[in-house]
Specification:
Layout (H helix, E strand, L loop, with lengths): L2 E7 L5 E7 L3 H10 L3 E8 L2 H6 L10 H16 L4 H8 L9 H12 L4 H5 L8 H13 L2 H57 L6 H15 L1 H19 L2 H11 L3 H24 L4 H12 L4 H12 L4 H6 L6 H13 L2 H57 L1
């Protein structure tokens, strides 16, 4: 069945776009008009079926970006006046949300069975975290679901942009380390054996470092098949283990305890906490429930400390006082949150604090990259240079014996 990409106007004049599968273009137009939209353009995409055939089950897990697109498109359709079941029906065949289509179809089925949207989302906790579900529930109660979804989509886009910045910042050091490992592997497998044969023929005297490297090179070459199989198994096992959210959280928690990354992790935690605090409070979620949701989202080894702070707030204490007795957030952030409590503008000030610490996070990432990249190059250059000097020294000793 062919797929069609469409563009349409809402009753308020906004332009919405998406993709859906239908027998003919006229069927697409009928579906769009049924939702109260005015179709502008439909374009056949012949490659979509080919894309679907390539959607193997191994790679069928929806991405975070798919959830963001679904959230923003659902908000646009609800703003245009579509009913929730009709909007979900349209999105269930929307190619733009990719691997999430089957999940959206399941959600629509549960909504038609009598569940609310928030209750249907609870069946997919890996895709829709507690904060997402809580905000949708607030939107359903207040009748402002389209606005809540719009806020959610915007903030998810902001978070994904920040994650891309972190990934881009760490990509250069990772590439340098990978290239260095490749150079060392080439040196061990192909360069050292050539010198080893010459030096052994002449019974040259080798220093302990060169002798150890020669032995290591011989061992690696003799067991190369076993080593390659072990590396493949290790990579696949690591990938399977790292897919689990709890494992990722544990590994990230251990890595971020390194001195170089600890400050970066604290800035990221502060920005994430304040950003989500402002969103939840601004949407009408009570403070104790907001803190409980945020503790579940953060998921660090400091959960016991966070839980104590939540209990203190639940029993009538101020948020700033509960956080002041801990080292969970920087002192400056706590002072700014206290000002927000005193002025009654905690949601707004929380957003400002988040922007402040996001800027600091970006500067810290730039410093980390500026340190790790050159440091890795210097270390690898020193190692390779030392090996070359040691080998050349041994070769010179051979030439002196010949002379």
């Amino acid at each position: 069945m062919p797929s069609f990409r469409y563009r349409a106007l809402t009753q308020s004049g906004d332009v919405v776009s998406g993709s859906l599968t239908a027998p003919t273009a006229s069927e697409v137009a009928n579906r769009i008009e049924f939702l109260g939209l005015v179709p502008i353009e439909t374009i056949t995409e012949a490659r979509d079926n080919y894309k679907e055939r390539l959607n193997f089950s191994l790679f069928s897990r929806p991405r975070a970006e798919d959830v963001t697109i679904f959230t923003r498109d659902l908000a646009l359709l609800l703003k245009a006046g579509a009913r929730i079941d009709d909007a979900l029906d349209l999105l269930a065949v929307d190619i733009d949300i990719g691997r999430l289509r089957s999940v959206v179809a399941q959600i629509r089925g549960r909504v038609l069975a009598g569940e609310s949207l928030s209750e249907a989302l609870l069946h997919h906790p890996a895709l829709f975290p507690p904060m997402y579900v809580a905000l949708v529930r607030v939107g359903e109660t207040s009748g402002a679901l389209d606005h809540i979804l719009d806020v959610l989509g915007t903030e998810r886009s902001r978070g994904e942009s920040m994650r891309r910045k972190v990934t881009d910042a760490l990509r250069y050091p990772a590439f340098v380390l990978f290239a260095a490992c490749c150079v060392l592997s080439f040196f061990l497998l192909f360069v050292l054996p050539q010198f080893a044969a010459v030096l052994k023929d002449f019974n040259a005297k080798l220093d302990p470092i060169v002798a150890t490297l020669f032995d290591l090179s011989t061992f690696v070459r003799a067991h190369i098949a076993v080593i390659e199989a072990a590396i493949v198994i290790l990579i696949v096992s690591g990938w399977l283990v790292f897919r689990r959210a709890k494992t990722r959280t544990m590994i990230v928690g251990l890595v971020t305890r390194l001195p170089l990354l600890n400050s970066v992790a604290q800035l990221n935690r502060t920005a994430l906490f304040c950003r989500n605090l402002g969103i939840l409070l601004g949407s009408g979620v009570p403070l104790p429930m907001t803190l409980r949701i945020l503790v579940d989202m953060i998921g660090t080894s400091d959960n016991a400390i966070w839980s104590k702070a939540v209990d203190r707030v639940r029993h009538g204490g101020k948020l700033s006082d509960a956080l002041a007795d801990t080292t969970l957030l920087p002192a400056m952030a706590i002072r700014m949150l206290r000002i927000g409590e005193e002025t009654g503008k905690l949601p707004e000030l929380s957003g400002n604090v988040a922007e402040f610490y996001e800027a600091k996070l970006q500067r810290s990432l730039d410093r980390v990259v500026g340190i790790t990249g050159p440091a890795a190059i210097v270390i690898i250059s020193t190692i390779v240079g030392g090996l070359i000097v040691s080998v050349m020294t041994a070769l010179l000793s051979v030439t002196q014996i010949i002379d």
